Automatic annotation (TrEMBL):
The chain crosses the membrane at residues 6-27. Keywords: Membrane, Transmembrane, Transmembrane helix. It comes from the Bacteria. This is DUF4030 domain-containing protein.
Amino acid sequence: MDKNKYIILAGSVLASVIIIFALYFNYHSSKQVSTKEMNRGQNNNIDEIPVLEVPKKQMDDIHKRTEKTVQAIHKGLENAKGFKNTHLKSVESSPKSKTLNKKLSFLITINMQTSIKSSDKHAEDVGHDVEKFVSKIMNSKKMKALLKNNSYTIKVFSKDGKKIN
């Protein structure tokens, strides 16, 4: 297997693991808790928090969409000129709503990593260029059909970990 296939496979596995952990740890509660309640130490019993259970079919569907997103971005970066030192950092999926309904929709967050430092005077321009490039991939007919009722956001980070777009 060549290097690119390993990268795509590793990205797909990473995306799946991120989705599972995100859904398991961060999106269990359908009850909104105010900042005041949290500060007073109320509602801290984990057993009292309702769990958002996502049907297996929807989980498989979001895994497929995330994997296809990873593949599309990797392929786009592979073929692009000018983005040699830019790579996909992670793809995260999170439910837009904490309540379960028939059409649970997800927000897909695409995190890109660049080799430019945030202090570079061109960092913001690079961030916007990477964002436009990834948006172009995500707005293709194929990706729009894949995303369906899910939306996405793109975050571009500098070499030193600061958001530059």
